[in-house]
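WARN retry 2 of 3 for item q-0093 after timeout on previous attempt; input resubmitted unchanged.
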Amino acid sequence: MRRRHLPTQQWKQLIQEWQSSSLSVLQFCRNKDIPTSAFYRWKAKFKLSEGNKPKPFVQVKLSQSNHANLELVLNAGHVLRFSEATDKKALVSALEAFKEVGLC
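OK item q-0093 returned
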């Protein structure tokens, strides 16, 4: 990917376009040929400038099953277990929230 110097308004439009898409940040950035690091940096700038606080937690539904296909160990030592039936969008949202607050 090449470096792109885009105006602030264009970054706002790109982020809004991504929010209305069903693509991951990685897929969206690849399609638009923009660096993911720049995308996340601008996304964070807009959140701060709008006065929005990052959401440290995302609502999830707990399963009664003890069978986990994916196990995630957070920096603080907490362990999250996910089954193959876990909604992928919910998992991505949870991981993004954990990343924003420095838990992973």
